[in-house]
Amino acid sequence: MTRTTVNHLGDHVGETVNLEGWLSNRRSSKKLHFLLLRDGSGTVQCVVSREKFGDEAFEPLGHIPYESSLTIEGVVKADARAQGGYELEATDVRVISEAQEYPISNKDHGPDFLLSHRHLWLRSRKQVALMRIRDEVLRAIRGFMHDREFLCIDAPIFTPNACEGTSTLFEVNYFDDETAFLTQSGQLYMEAAAMAYGKAYCLGPTFRAEKSKTRRHLTEFWMWEPEMAHSDLDDVMDLAEDALRTIVEAVLTNRGEDLEVLKRDIEALERVREPFPRISYTEAVEKMHEKGHEFEWGGDFGARDEALISSLYPQPVLIHRYPQEVKAFYMKRDPQDDRLALGVDVLAPEGYGEVIGGGQREDDLDLLQGRLRAHGLSEEAFAWYLDLRRYGSVPHGGFGLGIERTVCWIAGIEHVRECIPFPRMLYRIYP
Ligand code: 4AD
Ligand code: MG
Predict the structure, then answer these.
(1) 102 Cα to the center of ligand 1, angstroms
(2) Are residues 130 and 274 in the same domain?
(3) Average pLDDT of span 281-286
(4) Which ligand ends up closest to the CA of 168?
(5) Could you tell me if 273 and 349 lie in one domain?
(6) How confident is the model at residue 162 (pLDDT cuts 50, 70, 90)?
């Protein structure tokens, strides 16, 4: 007997196969049961006939509770009308474990109920499609990095110091009297890696004790952070643009069915093939003023400001050269204008806002020391980081891409909480 999965049924038309899955739905008539079997790779309708099974075997199959685990044996039939193009003419149905009454039904559950049942919610069709897209995004990133000869260098999660400001640090008791922090970003370690390997990246969980309750904030999220030696802001912007185009192309090519399940507007995604506009912060502020939007030069963009700017372009837009006050201590100043930092944010279209933040790093020892002092950061904690400027400093840069925000935009989802398997937020750490 061939054991297979729903997504491979096309290779077995006319054969008898064995599928293992869960009962996701059922319709019954006097003579037939239509059992919808979900196995993670897809869903297939299995037809059980009273005539073939006999009354005694047929009757109980009309009462198996939803989400019971099943093994179904049957003959694969091609059927253009069926979901996925195939159906199974069942010859045997065995219950592995009969489910209790399943808490999630087709009726509308509120987000809180669903989040509290996340361990079960993940089984639903939309969530499966979303996790497949997330997987594709991660795979595309790793492929892109490999093609460009970047080395994967994993950054630590316990860290002795802040990277992105001290207000969003999670403290952890680290033996005796020491305090450690959950990493906010692997960047500083990637700078060390770039000086060792030229081009390096990390991809892993990062943590922000962010008390913001918005649709874009998680306290634990995944970030991809490439870093390149001998590179300036333009190189960083080129890499960010190529990366986003590669990621979107991979999802369009390999996850069309999942985008369809999510009813994603494909045309909007296809516009990402065109060049991305690049504007300076100052130009962005001017554009906001032209649209009658109030904003004072010097401040950081909030969600509303980002939404306005990104609504002006169908492609992701790169905004560069922010006022240095709103950016982190490690950003290099613009040699043309000392008020500005050589940073770049990439805003996703359709109002999704920032998905990438990065730029060129300060590579001068004295300036960096001064910057640490100005930001109230201890030089002692950053001694190792300063060493990178002592021993063969070079211009370098990179960025961080938020995985969940990127998936949220590409999949057309409203809230990042659905774009990570088990979201951690201000008021949620269960399940
Ligand atoms: O802009 P951020 O804070 O940049 C850094 O951490 C740099 N050290 C990265 C680097 O240059 N290597 O964060 C980068 C990205 C943001 O653009 C956003 O996509 C995501 O990380 N991000 C969050 N995603 C979900 N929830 C949060 N609370 C996030 N904070 C940042
Ligand atoms: Mg940022």
Answers:
(1) 38
(2) yes
(3) 98
(4) 1
(5) yes
(6) confident
- Residue 32 is part of which domain span? 2-97
Residue 426 lies in a domain: no
Going by pLDDT thresholds of 50, 70 and 90, the confidence category of residue 161 is confident
- Give nearest CA residue, ligand 1 atom 22: 402
Inter-residue contact 17 to 2 (CB < 8 Å) = yes
Q: Is residue 242 domain-shared with residue 207, that is, in the same domain?
A: yes
CA dist 164 and 377 (Å) reads 11
State the pLDDT at residue 318. Answer: 98
Work out the percent of the chain whose per-residue pLDDT is above 90.
Answer: 94
Tell me which residue of 84, 16, 76, 67 sits closest to 46, measured CA to CA: 76
In the chain, the number of structural domains is: 2
17 CA distance to ligand 1 middle (Å)? 47
Average pLDDT over residues 390-414: 98
Same domain assignment for residues 33 and 130: no
In a domain, 165, yes or no: yes
Mean pLDDT of the chain: 96
pLDDT, tens digit, 9 for 90 and up, residues 59-108: 999 999 999 999 999 999 999 998 889 999 999 999 999 999 999 988 88
pLDDT 10s digits, 235-269: 999 999 999 999 999 999 999 999 999 999 999 99
CATH number of the domain at 26, please: 2.40.50.140
Q: Is the CB of 225 under 6 A from ligand 1?
A: yes
Does residue 71 sit in the same domain as residue 139?
A: no
Q: Is the CB of 404 under 6 A from ligand 1?
A: yes
Residues 169 and 89 in one domain: no
CATH number of the domain where residue 360 is located: 3.30.930.10
Same domain flag for 159 and 83:
no
Check whether residue 324 and residue 221 sit in a common domain.
yes
